[in-house]
Design goal:
This protein has 31 helices and 22 strands. The protein is of the alpha+beta class. The chain folds into 3 domains: 499 residues, no CATH class; 132 residues; 95 residues, Maltose phosphorylase, domain 3. The strands form 6 sheets. The chain has a 6-stranded mixed sheet with strand order 13-20-21-17-12-14, with no helix packed on it. Strands 6-5-9-11-10 form a 5-stranded mixed sheet, with helices on both faces.
Length: 814
């Protein structure tokens, strides 16, 4: 009897190892097929490398063909999120790890900015941390991102084949769609994608916990949840999580509906799952507690609440089938199409409103999804729970009457941008592709849903042709796309009808395999991916950056227009910027910035012409100095020593020269002027002091009375200032004031007062003074303790997992 148990145990272990190996093999092969240019030809997944490759006129490393008229940026939707936020912050975190500087304060962006509170730049995500710890660079970036793709496909494939018990071809079909749908391929390397890639592992471990309440499944769920939510692009992460939880609910119902004690079992399962998620959330206390404690100063909730949802138009429905019907989609959207559907002044010019972004599924994928509804009656809970988030998101995106108004009434959620709602769609849709492939294999698919889906596509494509017309540019390409999509739709619909008619299982499987192959080919063509070779831009900076790095010291630069020094490069190279294009800004500084520099509304970065600027940035400013009201005293107070402009800004060149600014650097792309009137970064001044004031306004003539102070050392969250004064004075530092900063004068704690509602200052007595300032928020310490304690608890659970499993069995929780 004992021998039989040992044999059975060994057999189970061998079967488990075989499942793991087959999952890894499928994942590796699919990643090699989807990214052969990266794996075999040295192409990069980093968006910075695409920009550098374009500017340097490098040759893309394509393997799959792309349309002749395509540019590298055409296939993307929001590449600025990577260029201006997440990628520079990888280099900032690398600097922090290598030097021991705090990542909770970034002094190089907008006169000082909080760390994890800048949510969309993903500073504390697993992806960023791994890249930073491994030293950054193009190769590390691409390898790390490919590893995430492998993990995502591995767990999705195992979920479909192991948990849903669908055949391997169904798992492969789901994985292909997951990798190549419009949301996935359009956001490769962008700050949306890490959450999307970390979703399947959390789903798999959550389902494992549903199947068997064990220590390993509990810890796996907690850790995968923590990894998933370490991706701090909150709208995308939350909406992805909501769709995944719908799938989990469907699975629980499917597995336990026939049990007599299902009510109590449901409560028990979801209670344990909730505890596991809570444990994962506590692991992330170091990330999210600072965010919650600084909501007032960063104004994040107000920013999201003030956004106006932009619906997708019904004539955008054909883009669900292909991004190339009638006109191009994503960054390739034509100006006429953008004008027809409405425009925004984002980035200082005509651009398609985000409501026109419709991510494609593909013709074949939608037909296979239509086959997901089976002929036979039975438990279809998972299918329904996959459809629910898809339909809710699409109803919201396309503003279905009634539902649209209902969601709009919800706080925060009602203002989430249209482009983020797509995050709730594509993982459930991938699982439906798996069900559709399975139903084709076992000849149980209903055809009418696929016919309805294709009919909808035909009706709205004809409507778009009537309204918009078929015309240049790229008329031949558009016509070919229309004909190809129509031919593919008809052919695939006919193929779907054969499995039901035949009694040959091998023929049904062959037809399913042909459809999956066609899906791969169509989605690969629609991806239009062209990538440039890897470069080490952050390790080999441009001449402009090298000049600033050598000459700027502790002063700041200010960018006008779209120079080679694009936003947030200062954080990457440790060059202080007065501007920023990042989230989580201190609202008081943004107000100060736009009091110092007044821009016309069409030269500010806004979501809508009537809205206030998003970021303290001059990136959209044009060569119109007569339209810019600049308070140079405020610029001097910011510590701006260098002004960086595009080389073609001839009007600004003349104006700055007339105003006494000195041209100190010139290249093909940029010119740099020096502001010789800049004030010291730290100085003392005599001002009235009643001993109780927490805020001080500098007098109008303050610059005539300042005495420079010496900044002895300057690190992210620690600095040291020395000087001497003849009487009690105020020492001003031109960094942002924030509540977590503490100060001592001659080793005695002193309060920090707010100068001009923005900058910090301390009063010092007559004589020599020695000031130390540090950012040591109490909530950061509490957060670190909570995170460490929870990591220790989860580690102990794994070390003593047999004991934990025995206790769970004893109390009937397994």
């Amino acid at each position: 009897m004992c021998h039989n148990r040992i044999t059975l145990h060994r057999s189970q272990r061998a079967g488990s190892h075989l499942k793991v190996l087959s999952g890894l093999l499928v994942s590796a092969l699919l990643i090699a097929l989807v990214f052969p240019d990266v794996i075999f030809r040295g192409a990069s997944l980093r968006i910075t490398d695409q920009l550098v490759g374009q500017l340097a006129h490098l040759t893309p490393k394509n393997i799959y063909p792309v349309p002749a008229h395509s540019n590298w940026w055409d296939a993307y939707q929001d590449d600025g999120g990577a260029l201006f936020q997440s990628e520079p912050m990888i280099e900032f975190m690398r600097f922090c790890f290598q030097t021991g500087n705090s990542a909770f304060w970034n002094p190089y962006s907008a006169a000082g900015q909080l760390g994890p509170d800048s949510l969309v730049d993903q500073k504390f995500s697993l992806f960023t941390v791994v890249n930073a710890l491994l030293g950054g660079g193009s190769l590390v970036y691409s390898v790390t991102l490919l590893a995430l793709y492998v993990a995502a496909v591995f767990f999705l494939y195992r979920f479909v084949t192991e948990k849903l018990r669908l055949p391997p071809l169904a798992g492969i079909a789901a994985a292909i769609f997951y990798l190549l749908n419009g949301f996935s391929i359009t956001n490769v390397g962008l700050n949306f994608i890490p959450a999307y890639l970390c979703g399947p592992p959390w789903l798999y471990f959550s389902i494992s916990l549903v199947d068997r309440r064990s220590a390993a499944a509990f810890v796996g769920t907690a850790v995968s949840f923590a990894i998933f939510f370490s991706n701090t692009h909150v709208p995308v992460t939350l909406l992805t999580a909501a769709s995944l939880y719908s799938i989990i609910i469907g699975y629980v119902i499917r597995q336990n509906y026939d049990r007599k004690d299902r009510g109590r079992l449901f409560v028990r399962i979801f209670a344990i799952h909730f505890v596991a998620m809570t444990a994962g959330a506590v692991c992330l206390a170091v990330v999210y507690l600072p965010v919650l404690s600084n909501l007032t100063s960063t104004n994040i909730l107000t920013d999201f609440s003030s956004r106006v949802f932009q619906r997708a138009f019904a004539l955008g429905i054909p883009s669900l089938f292909s991004p190339s019907l009638v006109y191009e989609s994503y960054n390739a959207t034509e100006p006429l199409a953008a004008t027809w559907y409405g425009t925004a002044s984002v980035f200082g010019g005509i651009a398609p409103m985000s409501g026109n972004i419709v991510y494609h599924f593909g013709v074949v994928s939608l037909i296979i999804i239509g086959c997901a509804w089976p002929r036979a009656r039975g438990r279809i809970d998972v299918i329904i729970c996959c459809l629910i988030p898809i339909l809710i998101a699409l109803f919201r995106i396309f503003a279905v009457p009634g539902f649209y108004q209902l969601v709009t009434l919800l706080p925060i959620v009602g203002s989430i941008s249209e482009q983020y709602w797509w995050a709730a769609i594509f993982i459930p849709a991938a699982i439906l592709v798996g069900f559709g492939a399975n139903n084709l294999i076992d000849r149980s698919a209903k055809q009418w849903p696929s016919v309805v889906i294709i009919s909808i596509g035909i009706v709205f494509t004809l409507a778009r042709l009537i309204v918009f017309g078929l015309h240049e540019p790229f008329y031949a390409f558009k016509l070919t796309s229309l004909i190809s999509s129509a031919t593919l739709a008809i052919s695939c619909l006919l193929l779907c009808m054969f499995p039901v008619a035949t009694k040959q299982s091998w023929l049904a499987s062959a037809i399913a395999a042909v459809l999956v192959a066609l899906m791969f080919g169509e989605l690969t063509w629609d991806a239009k991916a062209q990538r440039f070779p890897r470069s080490d831009f952050f390790h080999n900076p441009s001449p402009e950056i090298a000049f600033l790095k050598s000459n700027i010291g502790l002063y700041r630069m200010l960018n006008f227009g779209q120079t080679d020094l694009y936003p947030e490069l200062g954080s990457a190279f440790q060059i202080a910027e007065a501007s920023s294009m990042n989230e989580g800004l201190l609202s008081s500084y943004k107000d100060f910035f736009f009091r110092a520099i007044s821009l016309p509304s069409d030269q500010a970065l806004v979501f809508h012409p009537w809205a206030s600027p998003l970021f303290p940035s001059l990136w959209a400013a044009r060569d119109t100095p007569n339209l810019h009201d600049i308070d140079w005293d405020a610029i001097d107070l910011m510590g701006v020593k260098f002004l960086v402009l595009p080389s073609y800004f001839s009007n600004y060149r003349a104006k700055l020269s007339d105003e006494g600014k000195q041209l100190v650097f010139e290249s093909t792309h940029s010119i740099i002027f020096e502001n010789q009137n800049v004030l010291p970064r730290a100085f003392s001044i005599v001002v009235p002091d009643d001993g109780t004031s927490s805020s001080v306004q500098l007098p109008a003539d303050f610059r005539d009375h300042v005495t420079p102070a010496e900044i002895v050392s300057y690190h992210n969250a620690d600095l040291h200032i020395r000087g001497a004064v003849n009487q009690r004075s105020l020492v001003v530092l031109s960094d942002n004031w924030q509540q977590g900063w503490r100060a001592t004068v001659n080793s005695q704690p002193v309060p920090i007062v707010k100068i001009n509602e923005v900058f910090p200052g301390v009063f010092v007595p007559a004589g020599q003074f020695d000031i130390s300032m540090s950012y040591r928020s109490k909530v950061n310490l509490i957060a670190k303790i909570l995170s460490i304690v929870m990591v220790v608890i989860l580690s102990l659970m794994m070390i003593f997992k047999r004991t934990v499993d025995d206790r769970l069995t004893k109390y009937g929780l397994r």
